[in-house]
Design goal:
single chain; 190 residues; alpha/beta; Rossmann fold; 9 strands; 44% helix
């Protein structure tokens, strides 16, 4: 590839379907890659180290912060998350458009540190549907669920700071809309 890749920063509340949409976008466009973040949270069923996340302990994460290895990092629900500089520099230099799926705190940091990124916010059709999706996971305690829902209300306000908003009423429609955003960005940037 001869052009530099475009970073796409994807954010939205937990449970909105970001990961599902991102996986399908990558499966449908060979020119799009996924930026693998670091996290201190435990892997969920089916997640693999080095594929879904780099799973590290808190001490190792703190060492990476001290070494200025991250473009962004944040704490969310008691776990640390971060996007390393290398995870962005290498694929975009190779010409791949790169999806960075990050929490709102990280998206706000990337707005300053990666201003060329296209910011996309994934939102639910309604808050009630988001709550149903989160409860359907059955992976959190009631206290964690309440905290996630409270945080989701705050996160929805970030949507106005993004270039694009995708309402995830249907995964297929959301994926198509995302792919169209990628195509348009490529046209605009050559």
């Amino acid at each position: 590839m001869s052009r530099r890749g475009i970073p796409f920063v994807v954010s939205g509340p937990s449970g909105v379907g970001k990961s599902t949409i991102v996986r399908q976008v990558i499966a449908n466009d060979r020119g799009v890659a996924f930026s693998i973040s670091h996290t201190t949270r435990r892997p969920r069923a089916g997640e693999k180290d080095g594929v879904d996340y780099f799973f590290v302990d808190r001490a190792e994460f703190q060492e990476l912060i001290a070494a200025d290895a991250f473009l962004e990092h944040a704490e969310y629900q008691g776990n640390l998350y971060g996007t390393s500089r290398a995870a962005v520099a290498r694929p975009t230099a190779e010409g791949y458009d790169l999806i960075l799926e990050v929490e709102i705190q990280g998206a706000q940091q990337l707005r300053k540190r990666l201003p060329e990124a296209v910011r996309i916010f994934i939102e639910p059709p309604s808050f009630e549907i988001l709550e149903e999706r989160l409860r359907g996971r059955s992976t959190e305690t009631d206290d964690v669920m309440r905290a996630r829902l409270e945080r989701a209300r705050e996160e929805l306000a970030y949507a106005d700071q993004c270039h694009h908003r995708i309402v995830n009423e249907s995964i297929d429609a959301a994926v198509d809309e995302f792919l169209e955003i990628v195509r348009e960005a490529r046209k605009e940037r050559g």
